[in-house]
Amino acid sequence: xxxxxxxxxxxxxxxxxxxxxxxxxxxxxxxxxxxxxxxxxxxxxxxxxxxxxxxxxxxxxxxxxxxxxxxxxxxxxxxxxxxxxxxxxxxxxxxxxxxxxxxxxxxxxxxxxxxxxxxxxxxxxxxxxxxxxxxxxxxxxxxxxxxxxxxxxxxxxxxxxxxxxxxxxxxxxxxxxxxxxxxxxxxxxxxxxxxxxxxxxxxxxxxxxxxxxxxxxxxxxxxxxxxxxxxxxxxxxxxxxxxxxxxxxxxxxxxxxxxxxxxxxxxxxxxxxxxxxxxxxxxxxxxxxxxxxxxxxxxxxxxxxxx
Length: 307
Hints:
Oligomer: single chain
Helix content: over 70%
Structural class: mainly alpha
Radius of gyration: 42 Å
Mean pLDDT: 80
């Protein structure tokens, strides 16, 4: 239709018109329902392949077109010469990339300059700019069609936008969950460090108490020896004194041992209580997150202005 109504033969070459026609059919091959910004933000496979050059989805559409041409029996340019075949692929690449509005903004000044000086059929750059302009115009020409077609296309576009919005919300929730898990791990490591320091202090106290117990046992042995010596040397008086000393030292040793067991048992009970409190906090936090997610899903509504 463009060829007949606009007399493109006066402005473009036959191979350029053919490239424009094929590019129109291939410019949205394997469309994923998301834009370039989402592909880059979500770190998708396509972004890893094409983000360094820009126009992620447009380069993927062109790659899909090349894959079809390389399929056996599908190369409609098979009869072209090597030079014409390479030029056809270059034209298709430039025309399909023109469907990215970022590309249109980059060449906008050149389009204005061409409009000011007038189109020159002998200028190859003018040929390229005209092809890009035609492709961009065709890609955004939904509103020029009949009402029934325009409404249907608008509904599909709204559906695609809302679907991408849902995907973006899921990505944000996953990032928040990951941040929460990181914070929990950090908090757990801090608590473990505190417990380790407390346990280290308890071990020092335990060692001190055990050393006191050993000293007590040594003193008790000394008391026994003293009693023996007392019985040998002083008779009853020496024996009484030795027994008194032995009882005193023995009671001190028993007291030290009891204190050691109390300290160790108390520290274990405190650790168990802290662990139980942490488990309860984690369960409450997960329960609240689950309830908030369910409330979001219940309250989530979509406004469709086309209904």
